[in-house]
Amino acid sequence: MIKMSGTNRTNGKNKMKIENTIEGNITNIDGTEFGSITINGKKYDFDVFIFANGKIEKRSRSLSEAKHGTGHYFCFEEVQRLLESEPEEIIFGTGQDGFCKLEEEAIELLKKAKIKYQAAPTPKAIELFNRSKSKKAGLFHVTC
């Protein structure tokens, strides 16, 4: 089942939410280039969450920017959201050149939850994601 929804208005701000629910977590990431990622044949020009149920959402960099002054961190709160989908494993695509980092608090949360995780530059992370046979989630940064 595939479900798409467009831009929603929330508190006067544009908030884009994209849902792509696929039964059985059969999400396939086709590839990436600087500034985009292609999933199941659809190109996304922004960072994405892929939840363990196959749902895809745009990642806003605003949380990371507010906390760190840059969008190059995956934050505790973002990892918490991924954990809500009950993955066995989480793959982090850290950007084309691997600039994005996991917050220390996010790493501690993953360890406490006993969730296997891997972080690698996005092209390599895509390979890891596609090869994984576990119930997986992912968070992919598409630029540097």
Secondary structure elements and their pairing?
Blueprint: E1 7-10, E2 13-16, E3 29-33, E4 36-39, E5 42-44, E6 48-50, E7 56-58, H1 62-68, E8 73-74, H2 76-83, E9 89-94, E10 101-102, H3 104-113, E11 116-120, H4 122-131, E12 136-141
Parallel strand pairs: 8-10, 9-11, 9-12
Antiparallel strand pairs: 1-2, 3-4, 4-5, 6-7, 6-12
Give keywords.
12 strands, alpha/beta, 5-stranded mixed β-sheet, Hypothetical Protein Mth938, Chain: A, 3-stranded antiparallel β-sheet, globular, 144 residues, disordered N terminus
Folded structure, characterized:
The chain is α/β, with parallel strands linked by helices. The protein has one domain (7-141): Hypothetical Protein Mth938, Chain: A. The chain has helices at residues 62-68, 76-83, 104-113, 122-131; strands at residues 7-10, 13-16, 29-33, 36-39, 42-44, 48-50, 56-58, 73-74, 89-94, 101-102, 116-120, 136-141. α2 (76-83) packs parallel to α3 (104-113). The protein starts with 6 loop residues before the first strand and ends with a strand. Residues 1-25 have low confidence and may be disordered.
